[in-house]
Amino acid sequence: MKFPSVMKSVMAGAMLCAGSASAQTEIEWLQWFAAENVDGFYESLVEEFEASHPDITVKLVTQPFGKVRESIVTDSAIGLGSDVLGLNMPWTSEFLEIGLLEPLDDYLARDDNSFATADLVQAPIGKIDGQVWMVPLNAFPFVMHVNMDLVEQAGFTAPPTTWEEFSEQATAIAALGDGISGFGIPLSSQPPANGPILTFLPLLYANGGRIMDGTTPNFDNPKVVETLQYIADLNDAGALAPGAASRTGGVDLEEFIAGRTGFLISPGVHAQAIEGRNADLNYVAAAVPNNGTKAYRVHGWELGISSGSDKKDEAWTFINFLLSKDVNARVAAASNALPGNLSALDIVGEGAGDVMQSQIAILANDEPVEELRQAPNAVGSWSLMTEEMQAMLRGDQTPQEAATKVQSRWLDLID
Amino acid sequence: MSKIEIKKLVKRYGEHQALHGIDISIPQGEFCVLVGPSGCGKSTTLRMVAGLETISGGDVVIGDRVVNGLKAKDRGIAMVFQNYALYPAKTVYNNMAFSLQLSKMPKPEIAKRIADVAEILELTPLLDRKPGALSGGQRQRVAMGRAIVRDPEVFLFDEPLSNLDAKLRGQMRAEIKRLHQRLKNTIIYVTHDQVEAMTLADKIVIMKDGRIEQQGTPDEVFHDPDTLFVAGFMGSPPMNLIECFATDKGIKLPSVEIACDMPSAVRPGDKLVFGIRSDDIRPAEDGFEGVSISANVNLIEQLGTENLVHFSLGPDEMIGKTGGRTRITPNQEVSFTLQMQHAYFFDPETGRRLR
Amino acid sequence: MSRVINGLKENGTPYFFLLPCIVILGALLSVPLYKVVEYSLYDNVIVERNPTFVGLQNYSNLLTDSAFWSASVNTLIFTLGSVIGHIIVGTGLALLVNAEIHPRAQTVFRSLLILPWIFTAVVVALNWQLLLNPFGVINYGLTEIGLIDTPIDWLGDPAFAMWALLLISTWRGYPFIMVSFLSGLQSIPKELYEAAEIDGAGFFAKFWHVTVPQLKPVIYGVALLDLIWTFQLFPLVWLTTGGGPGRSTEVLSTMTFRQGFVDFEFSQAATTAVSILIISAAFTILYLRNEKQKI
Fold first, then answer.
1. Is residue B181 within 8 Å of B103, Cβ to Cβ?
2. Confidence band of B309 (pLDDT split at 50, 70, 90)
3. Nearest CA in chain A to C125
4. CATH homologous superfamily for B240-354?
5. What domain range is A35 assigned to?
6. CA of A6 to nearest chain C CA: how many angstroms apart?
């Protein structure tokens, strides 16, 4: 909690002076967003909310992304759950199984909402078990970050748009030597071990493939094998950064920022870190190269209400505030993402940089894909994909074998 | 068995010089005792002979070899330490066997040697015990046994008896003496106890401040001290030493003049230190020949066979001696006889004996 | 009974002052302990709102799970390897920093060599990940001197990951042994070494016949303590390899965490935790016995 206590008392004093006699309700907001935005944006957002809603105070509970999932589960188990939860779509089916989330249909149906449900990014509000469980604070496509200097040094003028061009360019960049790699794939087992969903899934979707059949895992299909084969071929061609099996997502990002990798497939929000940390990098963002299908993995920061909360109305009041056009536009801009409330897109797009423009273009032209929200044991499944892809890149098994093993182990995990 | 030659031995610790050129010659089989107050350099000398301290200058010769550069184990020495330094985890047997095992001696021979030595030192029943289960005297004997089994050319003892109580110390002293008579090894023995030195030594080397004050037989250093320090150090009670002036007939003490023969180098009026042992100061009634003085008795120290009589002579305190059956009591004016033929005179400036 | 009460009346004051401490410790230790054991007897807690009692079902699941046995073997290798590594490096460095060198240099070396101990596991893990990276300093050095031809992904190759982890764990844990042994070494009388030197002992003979026997009580106690700590060590492994690649460095503690917080199988996790508890408790009893003997 970075909220300065001095500020708190000042505000409390101000409220007393204003003569507000109504009892205050405190709601807790557990999230990782403020941990990724250190300039105090979320603190001031909360102040702004409290100023306009004198009967509600918001306690910002900030944790690193890797801790939030555990905290939501353990806090609720001991009855100390927060009211408003920052959510990640892949956690959904696990949380529903435990019964952690409150259905939001009734709240969305209210006519005093500050937004129109139709304007929200659709992926998170798709119904599961007939109900809506979360709303989007922001959204971003997975994109390919490109180091243009390396692309040009390797003799190309534009980022690759197809798989063929991608492997050609990645291989050529790796051939530059001096520790430069074409492309990094972070397959460390070290938590959150989510390399496959960062890198593999976007490539799979751009190949027209899926890993789910409705709510059932369907990993051993030809499109998955084809995509795995493509990654294995990149590896054989020497285009991949060595040490994939110990490469963490953090290292993958750092290596790109340091200009040692040609391409990075990751969420669009990483643009903020890349531009902030290495302003000299000749950097653009582009759609993930496709193999015939213009589709992208859509992701975002979502919001939900804890089923155990006894201040659900206040919680919704706060969410309603966050989704209002003007506020939501600022939230999106603060994290270099697209707004969850798409009516704010114009505000965000206005005067935004190239990276944001290319994300807006992807959003406008390509098909969004979101599978993990309905995937059972999604977090456990990443670990399995990580482990089997490690073995594949090591040469211990074929892409087909890797796909088969993930499928069978995933099914084991479910029952 | 070997002789030991210590030639111009020097030890420096950085700026500080601990030994200023020590020369000692120890013939084969001699029992040499280094004695002196703590810090005089006696232990340092011993440790340099042992090879536990580096030599800053001069030579140590054992037998015919200059051993300066040799490691301790190659010098043919054995050492007994003040606190015995027995290996706590080893049995008495293994403590004694350790050096032999390291030199790869066949096991039966080790066993035989230890059996022999244990017999001599009466350690046979203790061989299976660990040092923790032994008394101080037993440990002392094990430490000696450990030295003896090696059959060294030279034995080095570093204050071996100082951790024992008085009675045991007397016994062990005799035992060491007997052992030496039996084994006839060359020995260097360090002690601060002049009684030990007198009783054990063939040769006593008295050291002070890193220099040798005097070396010689116990008889020589006791009865013919070269320096004021040696005179004061050797003997118990210590020699009476009193500052005085030379006159044409003898010496003048603060309260009394004593007529005596003076060394030829002394001129009347010279400042001197006059020394006389308590053996040579007797009450007049004991019937010795000498110069009579009268003094007030302060204290009688009863030693049993003899008594020490403390008395004041002007500002100076002196100690005389008489038989165990004396009737003299404190606070009594008594006439004493000084046997001035046994008096010593020293130069107070240099501390050298005036002969 | 009345004697007890009378005794408390006479000597009760100190216990009264200890009471808050005892209550808090009891609550912090016994309640979680009880809870974990209880959890292990249900089908699944936390996730299930109304868990069913299943007795020892989770234990039989665990014992028939090949992952448990491979994690046990890994734990054994990791624990023994770490403790042996700690003792060898710790003893060696204790001997070195106990050597008679310039006192200021000695202080500097002693302070520097304790440093690995004071870093948090996160810092240790991150730094070693960088060092052991294919482009890291260690691979660079090894290729420069010609020991390896191409860089090795130490933490990503199942053939090397455990060794790399042991290296890190050794680096991280030796200072405790070093400090303990150093104080032990300083209490060994110098005369013992001199006596051994005269007896003809070289460096190793002195080490075996003087140093080791003198340190033995310290070694035994410290090694057991280290064993207990290392056996349940979690952060270092989790943050360095996450149990991977594959499950090649999965130990019981990371398995517990994975069952709990990755797979949400909290009862199974509790069961694994209880198995760790039982083994740790056995070591602890050994340790306490040893300490008692010393007194």
1. no
2. very high
3. A190
4. Nucleic acid-binding proteins (2.40.50.140)
5. 5-137+300-357
6. 32
Helix axes A222-236, A378-394, angle to 10 degrees: 50
B173: which 2 tokens?
């002293």
For residue A192, which of A68, A31, A374 has the smallest C-alpha distance? A68
Name the nearest CA neighbour of B123 among B143, B98, B107, B104.
B143
Length of chain B, in residues:
355
Name beta bridge partners: B61: B5, B66
Helix (H, G, I), strand (E, B) or coil at A339: strand
Contact B99 C200 (CB under 8 A): yes
Do A25 and A72 belong to one domain?
Answer: yes
Contacts of residue B189, defined as CB under 8 A and 6 or more positions apart, other chains included, come to B31, B32, B33, B34, B155, B156, B157, B160, B176, B196, B200, B201
Query: DSSP assignment, residue B252?
Result: E
CA C49 – CA C46 distance, rounded (Å): 6
Question: What's the pLDDT tens digit per position in C102-122?
Answer: 888 888 988 899 899 888 888
**What number of C-beta contacts closer than 8 Å exist between A and C?**
98
> Which residue in the set A73, A241, A391 is minimally distant from C46, CB to CB?
A73
Distances (CA, A) of C152 to C135, C139, C155: 9, 7, 9
Say yes or no for a CB contact (<8 Å) between C198 and B77.
yes
pLDDT of residue A7: 44
The structure tokens 């939860």 sit at: A85
User: Do C198 and B88 count as a contact with CB atoms less than 8 A apart?
Assistant: no
Residue in chain C lying closest to A71 (CA):
C261
Helix boundaries (H) for B51-189: 92-102, 107-120, 136-149, 166-183
Residue with the two structure tokens 């001095």: A6
Question: How many other β-carbons are positioned within 10 Å of the β-carbon of residue C284?
Answer: 15
Q: Where are the domains of chain C?
A: 57-294
Q: What is the predicted pLDDT for the residue at A5?
A: 47
Identify the DSSP state of C267.
H
Residues of chain A with pLDDT under 70: 1-23, 38
In this prediction, residue A306 carries a pLDDT of 94
Say whether B98 and C210 touch across the interface (CB within 8 A): no
Residues A308 and A269 in one domain: no
Contact B85 C189 (CB under 8 A): yes
C238, C246, C263 ranked by CB distance to A390: nearest: C246
- Best mutation target, B54, B67, B81, B130, to test chain C (most C CBs within 10 A): B81
As a whole number, mean pLDDT of residues B90-103 equals 92
Write the CATH number of the domain with boundaries B4-226: 3.40.50.300
Could you say which of C195, C213, C216 has the minimum Cβ distance to residue B85?
C195
How would residue C4 be classed by pLDDT, with cut points 50, 70 and 90? low
Verify whether the Cβ–Cβ distance C244 to A94 is below 8 Å.
Answer: no
Mean pLDDT of chain C: 88
Residues of chain C contacting B85 with CB distance shorter than 8 Å:
189, 191-192, 194-195
**In A, which residues are within 8 Å of C158 by CB distance?**
394
ipTM above threshold 0.90:
no
Domain C57-294 has CATH 1.10.3720.10: yes
Q: From start to end of A32-123, where are the E strands?
A: 56-62, 84-87
Chain A touches chain B, with at least 3 Cβ pairs below 8 Å, answer no
- The contacts of residue B310 (CB under 8 Å, 6+ apart) are B297, B298, B299, B300, B301, B317, B318, B319
Q: What are phi and psi of A284, to 5 degrees?
A: -135, 160
Q: Is the pLDDT of residue C77 over 60?
A: yes
Q: Which residues does chain A have within 8 Å of residue C39's beta carbon, measured at their own beta carbons?
A: none
B223, two tokens: 């009865």
Element (H, E) at C46: none
